[in-house]
């Protein structure tokens, strides 16, 4: 790839003129500007983003803060791929670039760790990043609050933050959980259990709140032994289902707070000789790809996964450009009815 100096020599202009073409084009006459741009396209020249940020005082680089430590399973969740596609596509469409600021959990790796978010904030400033998108890997809420107070434009996904230049994007988790329970109650189930997400996780807390509210609305008995904690992943769904089936009066229906856990519950029920949905009805949450390919196909609460990324991108761009700070974005969910509940 060509350098700015090479472009300048080929066009017979100064390096400063090449820089102004990309950073302050209105200061260069049209003929020179078109010549520089034509040669730049032919040689696949791209201006240095850090230098451009210093010149224009506005960076097109957005940092993605995401702890990918292999000991923390959050980064492997299937819904993240669609979220990242939506984020990158929306940013690219407006000329922004995504720089991943990930660690392996050891602050020595890159000089930053979610255990000490100041390192990430300093990194953002050192690289002249315009803003940050924060993705929760399972237990990052406290660190994200520190980002929110830093003044750097930031948008958190699935963590409610508040700060001078911060906002968040989240699904309407409580409403989604309520739709799942109402559906099961509408099919005649009264003994409805739930497998929750991890304690302290904000989406998980909202889903258990929605479960309890819908159970009260439907007049169903709220039994604490019907509330079993999971961690959003398959193995915890299997373990929780075994615990529920061991009760003297096991449930006839289960709402799992993630599709991964619902699949684990399905495997446990099948291993115990139960038929789904004849003996046990199941509803999950997320609508990841596996939900539609398991047998029976899983009824689930769908999240707008690409919409998460698009909403996060729009919010951080609004703060960077000064168009206006966006408030929290709460995305709607919808119940997708398949075969795991019967009819």
TrEMBL record:
The entry's keywords: DNA-binding, Transcription, Transcription regulation
HTH lacI-type domain: residues covered: 2-56
PROSITE patterns in alphabetical order: HTH_LACI_2 (PS50932)
Recorded superkingdom: Bacteria
Keyword DNA-binding included in the entry's annotation: yes
A Pfam family reported for this protein in Swiss-Prot or TrEMBL: Peripla_BP_3
Spans through the membrane: none
Matches recorded under InterPro entries: HTH_LacI, LacI/GalR-like_sensor, Lambda_DNA-bd_dom_sf, Peripla_BP_I
GO MF annotation list: DNA-binding transcription factor activity; transcription cis-regulatory region binding
SMART domains with a match to the protein in the record: HTH_LACI (SM00354)
Name of this protein: LacI family transcriptional regulator
Native organism: Amycolatopsis albispora
Organism classification: Bacteria, Bacillati, Actinomycetota, Actinomycetes, Pseudonocardiales
């Amino acid at each position: 790839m060509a350098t700015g100096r090479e472009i300048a020599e080929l066009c017979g202009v100064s390096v400063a003129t090449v820089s102004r073409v990309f950073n302050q084009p209105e200061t260069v006459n049209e003929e020179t500007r078109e010549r520089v741009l034509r040669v730049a396209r032919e040689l696949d020249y791209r201006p240095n983003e850090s230098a451009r940020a210093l010149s224009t005082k506005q960076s097109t680089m957005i940092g993605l803060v995401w702890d990918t430590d292999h000991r923390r399973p959050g980064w492997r969740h299937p819904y993240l791929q669609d979220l990242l596609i939506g984020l990158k596509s929306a940013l690219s469409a407006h000329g922004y670039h995504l720089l991943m600021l990930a660690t392996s959990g050891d602050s020595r790796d890159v000089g930053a760790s979610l255990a000490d978010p100041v390192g990430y904030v300093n990194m953002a400033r050192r690289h002249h990043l315009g803003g940050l998108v924060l993705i929760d890997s399972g237990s990052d809420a406290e660190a994200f609050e520190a980002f929110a107070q830093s003044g750097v434009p930031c948008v958190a996904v699935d963590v409610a933050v508040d700060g001078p230049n911060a906002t968040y994007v989240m699904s309407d988790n409580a409403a989604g959980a309520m739709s799942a329970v109402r559906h099961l109650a509408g099919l005649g189930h009264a003994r409805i259990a739930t497998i929750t997400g991890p304690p302290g996780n904000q989406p998980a807390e909202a889903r258990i709140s929605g479960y309890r509210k819908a159970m009260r609305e439907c007049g169903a008995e709220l039994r604490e032994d019907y509330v079993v904690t999971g961690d959003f992943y398959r193995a915890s769904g299997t373990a929780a289902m075994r615990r529920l089936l061991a009760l003297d009066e096991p449930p006839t229906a289960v709402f799992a707070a993630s599709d991964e856990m619902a699949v684990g519950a399905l495997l446990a029920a099948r291993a115990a000789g139960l038929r789904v949905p004849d003996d046990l009805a199941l509803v999950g949450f997320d609508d990841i790809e596996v939900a539609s390919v398991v047998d029976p196909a899983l009824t689930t609460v769908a999240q707008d996964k690409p919409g998460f990324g698009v909403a996060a991108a729009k919010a951080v761009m609004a703060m960077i450009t000064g168009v206006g700070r966006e408030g929290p974005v709460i995305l709607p969910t919808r119940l997708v009815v398949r075969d795991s509940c019967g009819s």
